[in-house]
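step=encode ok
step=design start
structure_in=
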């Protein structure tokens, strides 16, 4: 049972990054729990609380990014009942205008099991320096 839950959360996390890479807000809408308690902290940003504020942050990112590609490393997945978390390093290649940027972000993604689906309820990214 635990192994199955870990596999489900791993797939949910992959879907999160696929939605992120697609820069498609409709895809992001489908994977988040659209609740008042969801939270998001993008690197260098202030805390966003509640689905409308979290969603607006994704719209801003998507509207200002030409492309984004993730290579995840150091992935850790834990499940405790109906809550799960993934800690990973996001190795990001992004393009804004003509400029290509490479960066590394240490991320924590928190999931809640809603019915048969794992929905993301928190994303926190911190830049890795050096």
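sequence_out=
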């Amino acid at each position: 049972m635990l192994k199955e839950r870990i596999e489900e959360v791993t797939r949910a996390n992959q879907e999160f990054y696929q939605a992120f890479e697609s820069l498609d807000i409709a895809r992001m809408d489908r994977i988040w729990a659209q609740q008042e308690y969801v939270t998001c902290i993008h690197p260098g940003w202030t805390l966003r609380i509640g689905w409308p504020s979290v969603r607006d942050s994704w719209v801003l990112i998507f509207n200002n990014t030409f492309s984004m590609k993730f290579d995840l490393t150091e992935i850790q997945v834990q499940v405790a009942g109906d809550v799960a978390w993934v800690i990973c390093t996001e190795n990001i290649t992004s393009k804004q205008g003509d400029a290509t940027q490479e960066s590394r972000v240490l991320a924590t993604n928190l999931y809640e099991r809603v019915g048969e689906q794992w929905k993301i309820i928190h994303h926190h990214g911190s830049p890795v320096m050096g």
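step=design ok
step=annotate ok -> DSSP finds three helices and six strands in the chain.
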